[in-house]
Design brief:
- The complex is a heterodimer.
- Chain A is of the alpha+beta class.
- The longest helix of chain A is centred in the C-terminal third of the chain and has 9 residues.
- Chain A folds into two domains: 32 residues, no CATH class; 74 residues, Alpha-Beta Plaits.
- The mean pLDDT of chain A is 91.
- Chain B has two domains: 244 residues, Thiamin diphosphate (ThDP)-binding fold, Pyr/PP domains (Rossmann fold), CATH 3.40.50; 134 residues, 3-Layer(aba) Sandwich (Rossmann fold), CATH 3.40.50.
- A seven-stranded mixed beta sheet of chain B has the order 3-2-4-5-7-6-12, with helices on both faces.
- In chain B, β6, α7 and β7 form a beta-alpha-beta unit.
- The longest helix of chain B is centred in the middle third of the chain and has 31 residues.
- The termini of chain B are far apart.
- The mean pLDDT of chain B is 97.
- Classes of the chains: A alpha+beta, B alpha/beta.
- The interface between A and B is medium-sized, with 18 and 22 residues.
Chain lengths: 108, 396
């Protein structure tokens, strides 16, 4: 088996793959940035947030960032923009905006 | 081999349950279905009686049964299960996952018809649905062979050069439920033979964390990986033969990838899988007594297909009849016939082949049908054309 090296994956020969397509390193999804899949972006309003953690419970991509029991933001490198956090928020602290618009505004 | 072994009567299902008891896997997750039920029922009793250390998981379906087995196998456990028919069909997506994840699960299958119409009896419609999933598939003719195949299956599945799941199959009712004369090896003999299983990448080894069930959607990683599965199952044929011969050495019972009877000088050969080979050989003996040169070939392993062994056994015949117990609707040939024809063609052997389908849904496979096949093979060799597939035993 080859030493695990994501950089060289494209050049692996069939014999380099571990049996079972096992990834011999854990937690590597952090390195896989899925934020680029977003067409809509959830935006957090800290003032409205009650830290109920419903969004944290429902987020399928562990993209609600929390420290010491309080929400600190959204991990846009991994958030795919599914919007479940917005649907579940009972306090109007999350809204979905157009990703294209958000990027354009960031560029200004 | 030296001492006399005690012979007793048992059904194929009892023998499979006992084979699994002697191996004593770490986990069994199973769901009962006719005609497999007495395997898991019997095994559950072994668990309740404390005769095994297996963690027995009661699940709500076959889909869950094989899912639980895959999880347990990835965790590093030795795993066994059993199913049949609709149950095997319900496992279809997990069959591919177990093979792709290289989980060496051993699963017994009581070969049975598929709905519709509803039918609980024996044929090979269910197991042929699993032929392209990446599992090794073995067919037992008798209860004794079901026992031996099941034990060999663990050794093959867990071999570091294989690491593939194995389906150890026996024909519904004829082999699962009929009483047969059997012998059983000592528990310790079986334990010594299969040895301990140490998974290569166990999820429970938290000091060396790994990921199972990974993503391979980008680029050609998926295709490269699938190539490794083809290599693994092709390479498994020699390993099956090696471990089968080792078990044969211990037990004194033969193990051949292909059971070839009378083929040295046979002009006409029937190729069959599973329980009805006995009827084919019985009729062949009657015909031999009349001076006819006939033979019977029975692959004991269907995946990987022992193509060379089939060619070696059949190459001097004048005509070959392949009897399938399932159909491949829309294909010119049923599954076994397709394999046999492909093996002969690839080896450059040109022998006429007649295709037959028999015993669907537990319909009787009779000596008269075997005689009909041998008679038609003679006619075939004499140049008489025959339609592509004949359904034996019915007025078409």
């Amino acid at each position: 088996m080859a030493d695990f090296n994501g950089e060289n994956y494209e050049n692996w020969k069939p014999s380099d793959f571990p049996e079972g397509y096992v990834c011999p390193e854990a937690g590597t999804s952090v390195n896989c940035h899925t934020g680029g899949w977003r067409s809509e972006r959830p935006v957090w309003d800290k003032e409205q947030c009650s830290n109920c953690m419903l969004c944290w419970v429902y987020c399928p991509d562990s993209s609600i960032m929390v420290k010491d029991g309080e929400m600190t933001g959204i991990d846009y490198e991994h958030c795919k923009g599914c919007g479940v956090c917005v649907t579940e928020c009972k306090f109007g602290a999350l809204e979905l905006i157009s990703e294209a618009q958000a990027i354009a505004e960031e560029g200004e | 081999m030296a001492e006399e072994k005690k012979m007793f009567s048992a059904t194929g299902n009892q023998m499979v349950a006992d084979a699994m008891r002697q191996v004593d896997p770490d986990v069994m997750a199973a769901y009962p279905i006719t005609p497999q039920t007495t395997i898991v029922e019997g095994y559950d009793k072994f668990v309740a009686d404390g005769r095994v250390t297996t963690e027995y998981v009661n699940v709500e379906s076959e889909h869950s049964a094989l899912s639980a087995c895959i999880g347990a196998s990835a965790a590093g456990a030795r795993v066994a299960t059993a199913t049949s028919s609709q149950g095997l069909a319900f496992m279809w997506e997990e069959l591919h996952i177990a093979a792709g994840m290289r989980c060496p699960i051993v699963m017994a299958n009581a070969n049975r018809a598929l709905s519709a119409p509803i039918n609980i009896h024996g044929d090979h419609s269910d197991i042929m649905g699993a032929r392209d999933t990446g599992w090794i598939i073995m067919f037992a003719e008798t209860a004794q062979e079901a026992y031996d195949n099941t034990i060999v299956s663990f050794k093959v599945a867990e071999d570091p050069d294989v690491l593939l799941p194995v389906l150890t199959t026996l024909d519904g009712f004829v082999t699962t439920h009929a009483m047969d004369c059997c012998v059983m090896e000592e528990d310790q003999t079986v334990k010594d033979y299969v040895g301990e299983y140490h998974a290569k990448y166990p999820l429970l080894d938290t000091a060396n964390p790994v990921g199972h069930g990974m993503f391979a959607t980008l680029g050609d990683g998926y295709m490269k990986y699938k190539y490794t599965q083809r290599e693994a199952i092709e390479g498994a044929l020699d390993v099956i033969e090696k471990h089968g011969k080792e078990w044969a050495e211990i037990t004194g019972r033969p193990f051949d990838l292909v059971d070839a009877w009378g083929t040295e000088d046979a002009d006409y050969i029937i190729v069959v899988l599973g329980s009805c080979a006995g009827n084919a050989r019985f009729q062949a003996r009657q015909l031999r007594a009349q001076g006819k040169k006939v033979g019977v070939v029975r692959p004991r392993v269907f995946r990987p297909f022992p193509a060379q062994q089939i060619v070696d056994a059949c190459k001097n015949a004048k005509a070959i009849g392949v009897i399938d117990r399932s159909d491949s609707f829309g294909s010119a040939h049923a599954p076994l016939a397709l394999e046999v024809r492909s093996a002969l063609f690839s080896a450059g052997v040109q022998i006429p082949v007649n295709d037959y389908i028999a015993g669907l849904g537990g319909a009787d496979i009779t000596l008269a049908q075997m005689e009909q096949v041998f008679t038609e093979l003679e006619q075939c060799a004499a140049g008489e054309a025959k339609k592509s597939i004949t359904y034996l035993g019915i007025d078409e």
